[in-house]
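1st attempt posting a full record on here, be nice pls
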Amino acid sequence: MGANDEIFPEAGAHAYRDDLPDAEINILDTGRFALEDHAEVVAQHIARFTARLWARARGDPRRAAAAGAAARRASARLRLPECRADRPLRPVVNRSPLRSLPTFRRRR
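the predicted structure (as tokens):
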């Protein structure tokens, strides 16, 4: 989350910590759009977090530390594609998600 987010302030993130003491909170020096401003940093945090979760699920704390180190090495090599403002965005399929769900189709 961004430290300067006007909609979801930093205090809100710390409130989550009160309810979920094991939650991992990373405050970045950015505003509302942390993912857009710091995509590589956010991706690195996600890679480390998921590596620790998988390792913990397997029950070996040494593996958790090794997985965290491997995730850090992998995320250090991560390179996201550059945004090309000179070419238009691909069109988005104009389709309601409700049409693709069988439950909603039956109700109509």
